[in-house]
Amino acid sequence: MASFSVAFLGCKVSQTDAQALRERLAADGHTERGGETDIAVVNTCCVTHEAVRKSRQAARRAARHAGRVYVTGCGANLTGDAFAGLPANVVVVRRPSEPTPDWVAGDVGAIGCVQADVRLERVRAFVKVQDGCSFGCAFCVIPQVRGASRSRPAGAVLGEIRRRVAQGHREVVLTGINLGCYRDREARLSLPALVRAAGETPGLARLRLSSIEVNHLSDELVAAMRETPTVSPHLHVPLQSGDDAVLAAMRRRYSVATYLRRAAKAEGFNLTTDVIVGFPEEDEAAFANTLRVVEDAGITKVHVFPYSPRPETRTAGADPVPAAVKKERSARLRAASAEACRRRWEEKLGGEDVVLVDRPGRGYGDDYSPWLVEAPVGELIPVRARTVGEEGIVGVAA
Ligand code: SF4
C-alpha cells in the first residue's frame, strides 16, 4: 500500500479531476495523507502564464516530499517544455482527463484492498458533467489541452450526485468547461432537463451551476432553475469584455447587446462573471465599456484576469497592453465589483437567508452571496443580516 496526496490548481473542473484521482487511488487501497508521501499528484492549470508557473512550482515542491510525482491536468497537456527540467521523480502525464486516473493507478500498481469512498472535506461537491470545448476563443488554450466537448451520461451524473448526498454533501455544483454544451444524446437530455432531474435528488439541499456561456442562457434553462426549488438563484456568466470590438477580436460569438438581453432573463439572480483585462485590442474606451456593462448587467462579483498570451492560441504572439496599464485597469474593475457586491449585500440588511457554512465563520447564502456567521461547518442555518463588512454580510442565527 502506498501513501499519496493529490493537489490541484485552477478551476472547479480541475478540482473534480483531482477528486477522481483521489478516489481511484483510494479504491486501490492506497492511503491519502499530508506531509511526506510515496506518491503525489499535482493536477495543473495553464489558464495564464502565472498558473503554469505556480503549477511548475507545486510539482517541484512535491518532488521534495514524495517518492514519485505525477503531473496531470491542463498544464501537463500543453505542448512545449512547461514542465521540462524538473527532478527525475516527476512524471508528466499527457492524457485527457477521463483515462488519467486509471493510467496513474496502473503506474502506481494496484494493491487490491478496496477501500470505502473518499469524501471531500468540503460541504460542497463539484460534479463534472461535461469536459472539453469545441469553441475557438482567440485567447484560450483549453480546447487544445482538454479536447472537444463531451458529456457524461445523465445516469452517471445523477448516480454521482446521489453518492455525494449520501456522503453528507449538502450542496452540489454541476461543473464543466462549457456546461451549456451538455448533451446526453441517448437519453435525449440537455442541461435544463439535467438541472431538473439533479435538483430532485432526495436529500440534496442546494444545486448550482459552475458557469454558463451567455449564448446558452436560454429561457428553458432559466425556467428549469426557477422551477426547481433546490436550485440557487446564482449564475456565473463569463463576460470577458464589455466592448464589441474586443469581443469580436476574442471570437466570443456574442455582442454586448446579446449579453445584456440574455442576462436580463435571470432578473433577481446574483450574476457573477469573468473578465479579461488588457486584451490586445483593449484601449481605454473599450475598458470603460466593460465597466459600464458590468454595471448595466447588474453583475456583482467579477473575477478579473489580467491578459497573458497562451501558447497555441490565435493571440499567442500579441500582448501590447503594458503590464502597469493592466494592473491599473484590474484594480479599477475589482473596485467596481466590490462596490456592486456591497450594494447587493446591503439590500439584504434586516432580511433572512439560509447559509451553508463551508468554513469556520463563513458560508454562502442562497444566491451565493458570502456571509460571516458563527455556526458549525456543514450546517445549513437560517440567518438574519445585521450589517455588511468588507468580506460579506454579517449575520446572526435567525
Ligand atoms: S468557451 Fe472559449 S474561453 Fe471557454 S473554454 Fe471554450 S474556447 Fe475557452
Taking all Cα atoms into account, the compactness measure Rg is: 21 Å
> How many angstroms does the end-to-end distance come to?
49 Å
Instruction: Give the neighbour order of strands across the main sheet.
Output: 2-1-3-4-5
Percent of residues in helices: 25-40%
Main sheet specs: 5 strands, parallel
Alpha-beta content class: alpha/beta
Low-confidence stretches: 112-116
| Average pLDDT score | 94
Number-wise, the strands total 20
Q: How many helical stretches?
A: 11
Shape, please?
A: globular
Distinct ligands, ions and cofactors found in the model: iron/sulfur cluster
Strand proportion, as a percent range, falls in 15-25%
Describe the structure using short key phrases:
398 residues; alpha/beta; five-stranded parallel β-sheet; five-stranded mixed barrel; 11 helices; 20 strands; 24% strand; globular; binds iron/sulfur cluster
Structure, described:
With 398 residues, the chain is α/β, with parallel strands linked by helices. The chain is 33% helix and 24% strand. The chain has helices at residues 12-27, 49-65, 100-108, 142-146, 154-167, 191-199, 219-227, 244-250, 256-263, 284-297, 323-347; strands at 3-8, 31-32, 37-44, 66-73, 90-92, 124-128, 130-131, 150-151, 171-175, 183-184, 189-190, 206-209, 234-236, 270-277, 299-306, 352-359, 362-364, 370-372, 380-388, 393-397. Strand 16 (352-359) and strand 17 form a beta hairpin. It is globular. The termini are far apart. The relative contact order is 0.09. The structure holds iron/sulfur cluster.
